[in-house]
Design brief:
It is built from 13 helices and twelve strands. The chain has about 525 residues and is of the alpha+beta class. Among the domains are: about 150 residues, Beta-Lactamase (2-Layer Sandwich); about 160 residues, 2-Layer Sandwich (Heat Shock Protein 90), CATH 3.30.565.10. The strands form three sheets. Strands 2-1-5-4-3 form a five-stranded antiparallel beta sheet, with helices on both faces. Strands 7-9-10-12-11 form a five-stranded mixed beta sheet, covered by helices on one side. A two-stranded antiparallel sheet has the order 6-8. Helix 2 packs across helix 3, helix 9 runs antiparallel to helix 10 and helix 11 runs parallel beside helix 12. The longest helix is centred in the first third of the chain and has 54 residues. It is a multi-pass membrane protein.
């Protein structure tokens, strides 16, 4: 059975497909292709029915003209054939024409077929050209198979004079001398503008309709493409604003479609609001921190003379001073934590994007950490690939590096090693910080990136490397548990991801993957 999550994924995919602009364009394209195909078949069938009506009438005329010539053609007196041109001229009506062919008995193939007479009349040279044209159109081939039957046809034929006519029927008359064929023709007025004798799509009405339809399709395609192009402009501008590669550009300036102006205007307002909110949060963080630190500093200064006046024998007084000092330490820690949180929120609203040499930044920071590592008796090892650049804010990167390295240093027992590696992964920069601390329970590896969650060795157990039981949460320690939470938020704001995993031989690895510049 399909579980609920898979069903949700399928529903989400279906919803995405039904709301997709590209999917709607494909459906529209299919409709544009299907509708004319269906209409073409219907109109073509109607045109065929109309053709049959017209051709039936003109073929009947052709049969009657052939029957009128039958007595003369079947006559045993050859001299009567001298009057054939005058006879077909008399029989032919306005708009109708006649061509008479003869194949002597015993002759086979088109070479044995002779062009005897025609109305309208043709000169000897025109008769030769006419015969060549009829041979090319296969009319003589039809004669070899039609001497005993009446054969309908619909062939467009161009006379030597350049006038177009329609060959509508060929009636065969068999005599002892051979096979006569009377071909009836119609002038262009009968089939002008129709599809008789040609494919239906070549008719003027179909070509005009196709031109109008293609014009509509082109206009609609241009409309869709224009909207899509402006949406892509919006996307590129939004990406540029996010990456910090554009400064004063606006959606209104990028927009070319008047109907999208309200959308562009709202996008500009939203961008301006986010920037203002980010700046406001930063200012509020600094103001609040300053407002709290001043009275805290006064309280701490006021405690100094009390520490000097309260004697050591006064245990209750000394204990009270100790409690106040611890509360001050925790309060200052809270103020600092709140400031970090507000700065992090501000940077997530409008994260700075600069081309930062991560390799150089990490080398400088590790050099500054040498003293701290030496004081705690922890060995620092590093392997840094050079010239790795990322698009981010330097403060954000420093916060990421500081929190990860500080976390590794705090949990590392004396004499152990912390390794820091930065590897060029072509498209990504891979940072790994590995320690020999107690690690984290497998079930809690994701929780350490949550706010107010912290795992630290209990006091007096810093040397218990690998002892997974010697950990406490933020709720029972002086640690606020926001360091790795800030790391994840900053990393994701840059477009990367971070994960934690326990080392097989003890310790924890924090692995950060950041997109390099241009990726």
């Amino acid at each position: 059975m399909i579980n609920e999550s898979e069903q949700q994924v399928r529903r989400s995919g279906l919803s995405r497909a039904t709301h997709s602009l590209f999917a709607k364009f494909v459906i529209m394209l299919l409709v544009f292709l299907a509708v004319p195909a269906l209409l073409y078949q219907e109109f073509r069938q109607a045109d065929l029915d109309r053709q049959n009506i017209v051709l039936t009438a003109v073929r009947e005329q052709g049969r009657l003209m052939a029957e009128s010539l039958r007595p003369m053609l079947e006559s045993a007196d050859p001299s009567i054939l001298l009057d054939l041109p005058e006879e077909i001229e008399r029989i032919a009506t306005k708009g109708n024409g006649i061509k008479v062919l003869f194949r002597p008995a015993g002759e086979e193939g088109v070479q044995g077929v002779f062009f005897v007479a025609s109305e309208p009349r043709l000169s000897a040279d025109e008769l030769r050209k006419e015969r060549e044209t009829l041979v090319a159109q296969g009319v003589f081939d039809n004669l070899t198979a039609s001497c005993l039957i009446e054969r309908p046809m619909a062939i467009r034929h161009l006379r030597p004079s350049g006038i177009e006519e329609l060959l509508t029927s060929m009636t065969a008359i068999r005599t002892d001398a051979g096979c006569w064929a009377v071909i009836a023709t119609q002038s262009a007025e009968v089939f002008l503008g129709s599809s008789i004798g040609q494919p239906y799509w070549k008719t003027l009405e179909v070509q005009i309709a196709a031109a109008i339809y293609l014009g509509m399709a082109l206009i609609l395609t241009i409309l869709v493409f224009t909207v899509w192009r402006d949406l892509m402009r919006f996307r590129d501008l939004a990406r540029g604003i996010r990456e910090g590669s554009v400064d004063k550009s606006s959606f209104m300036m990028s927009n070319k479609v008047p109907e999208l102006e309200p959308v562009a205007h709202e996008f500009d307002r939203m961008t301006h609001t986010l920037r203002e909110s980010s700046d406001s949060i930063r200012r509020a963080a600094e103001d609040n921190a300053h407002a709290f630190k001043t009275p805290l500093a006064i309280i701490r200064q006021a405690l100094e003379p009390l520490n000097k006046t309260v004697e050591n024998e006064n245990k209750r007084g000394r204990r009270a001073l100790q409690v106040v000092e611890e509360a001050l330490d925790r309060l200052e820690n809270l103020v600092s934590t709140a400031r970090h949180l507000e700065h992090t929120s501000a940077e997530l609203l409008n994260p700075p994007r600069e081309n930062i040499d991560l390799s150089a930044l990490l080398l400088r920071m590790l050099e500054a950490y040498n003293v701290s590592f030496s004081q705690q008796g922890v060995i620092l090892q590093s392997s840094i690939d050079h010239e790795i650049s990322v698009l981010a804010g330097e403060d954000m990167l420093e916060t990421i590096l500081e929190n990860i390295i500080d976390n590794a240093l705090e949990v590392s027992p004396r004499g152990t090693t912390v390794t820091v590696d930065l590897i060029n992964g072509k498209k990504t920069a891979e940072l790994a910080v590995r320690d020999r601390g107690p690690g984290v329970p497998e079930s809690e590896l994701e929780r350490i990136f949550e706010r107010y969650v912290s795992y630290r060795p209990k006091k007096g157990h810093q040397d218990c490397a690998g002892d997974m039981d010697q950990v406490v949460t933020a709720s029972s320690s002086n640690h606020m548990g926001i360091g790795l939470w800030i790391v994840r938020r900053n990393v994701e704001a840059i477009g990367g991801y971070v994960r934690a995993e326990n080392r097989q031989d003890g310790g924890l690895s924090i692995i950060v993957s950041l997109p390099q510049k241009g990726e």
